[in-house]
């Protein structure tokens, strides 16, 4: 009983409406509740969006802090979601819209001027087609982002950052971790034509070798040009506008100030050491918020509206089905063993990491919690190493 109520509170805190909470309880957790029962539980736990509204000054202060980093590139709906999900604030979307208009009028106008119209995309259902690709806008600073998206629901399957997007084993590790978490693989995986995707292609075809559907074996992996990998290519524009562009400007300022040189291996390792975990956390947060935000109806009737997580996990609501292909656990273990030595989360060389930790212990320096702290740590480490 208490576990059920905790689930209700979890979905409420994600910003789900009551009918969405009821659907999740029934179709995912096999808990059948009436609307009246749900309202009673919400009231008993004091979960309401109309009362206990957060103090306006608290909301404004939080918005101002987010505007100092990647939050300056998102609209009022995404900002509202950050406030509710990440910061546990209770605030109306309209309040956030007015606050952004006052606090960031130039940003609001800029977003209004760059609205895009895209061609239509048709997907059959969740896990029918996965799109995977690398995002290279931070590559000049040696941060290589890679992601996978479900074509139908637009749910982000993984969004990771590492030291390379050219190492096939890295892409394969991301893919196998996703397959293991999902309990299966997609009918089809699509990627750009390139050597970095050869391991993923081999693993997908191996996992689908015993299937008997029309997309099994070699047909289960499709190569194509970037313009054909439409779903994730379009999504990268969301990542750049709402998240990555801030980091691009941040690192550009370091380089133009003469504080970072990409031909200096010490600078490269130091930048990764100071920033990699922060960027990874930001990407994971961005993916989590995206998966729970509401996609509005569009002229493309083939792409359903709703929250990506709900479209992915509750295909019945959209009158479709889950196309996930279950995979034998022994096959997944075999793939993991082939990739056992791959550490996709390492930020720099082992030797530099040891040196940086020694300096931090001697100088009582702490790991950074935000970009400004990371910048200060980077400058301190570079200065100390230059004086060795």
UniProtKB/TrEMBL annotation:
Q: For the Integrase core domain, which residue ranges apply?
A: 121-298
Q: Name one Pfam family in it.
A: rva_4
| Stored InterPro entries | Integrase_dom_put
Tell me the domain of life: Eukaryota
Which protein, by its recorded name, is this? Answer: Integrase core domain-containing protein
Task: State the species of origin.
Answer: Acropora cervicornis
């Amino acid at each position: 009983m208490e576990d059920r109520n905790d689930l209700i509170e979890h979905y409420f805190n994600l910003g789900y409406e009551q009918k969405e909470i009821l659907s999740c309880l029934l179709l995912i957790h096999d808990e059948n509740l009436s609307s009246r029962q749900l309202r009673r539980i919400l009231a008993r736990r004091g979960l309401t969006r109309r009362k206990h509204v957060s103090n306006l000054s608290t909301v404004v202060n939080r918005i101002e802090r987010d505007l100092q980093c990647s939050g300056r590139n998102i609209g009022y709906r995404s900002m509202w979601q950050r406030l509710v999900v990440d910061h546990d604030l209770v605030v109306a979307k309209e309040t956030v819209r007015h606050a952004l208009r006052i606090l960031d009028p130039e940003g609001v106008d800029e977003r209004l001027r760059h609205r895009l119209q895209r061609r239509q995309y048709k997907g059959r259902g969740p896990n029918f087609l996965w799109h995977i690709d690398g995002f290279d806008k931070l590559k000049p600073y040696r941060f290589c982002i890679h992601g996978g998206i479900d074509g139908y629901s637009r749910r982000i399957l993984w969004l990771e950052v590492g030291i390379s997007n050219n190492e096939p084993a890295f892409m394969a590790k991301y893919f196998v971790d996703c397959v293991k978490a999902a309990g299966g693989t997609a009918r089809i995986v699509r990627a750009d034509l390139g050597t970095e995707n050869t391991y993923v292609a081999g693993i997908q075809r191996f996992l689908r070798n015993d299937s008997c559907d029309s997309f099994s074996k070699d047909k289960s992996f499709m190569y194509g040009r970037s313009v054909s990998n439409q779903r994730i290519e379009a999504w990268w524009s969301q990542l750049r506008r709402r998240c990555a562009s801030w980091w691009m400007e941040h690192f550009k300022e370091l380089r133009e100030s003469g504080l970072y040189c990409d031909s200096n291996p010490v600078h490269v390792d130091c930048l990764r050491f100071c920033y990699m975990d922060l960027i990874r956390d930001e990407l994971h947060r961005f993916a989590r918020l995206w998966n729970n935000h509401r996609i509005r109806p569009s002229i493309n009737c083939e792409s359903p509206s709703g929250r990506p997580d709900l479209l992915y996990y509750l295909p019945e609501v959209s009158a479709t089905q889950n196309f996930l292909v279950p995979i034998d656990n022994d096959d997944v273990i075999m793939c993991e063993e082939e990739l056992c030595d791959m550490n996709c989360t390492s930020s720099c060389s082992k030797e530099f990491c040891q040196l940086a930790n020694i300096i931090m212990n001697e100088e009582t320096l702490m790991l950074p919690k935000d970009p400004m702290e990371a910048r200060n740590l980077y400058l301190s480490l570079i200065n100390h190493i230059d004086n060795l």
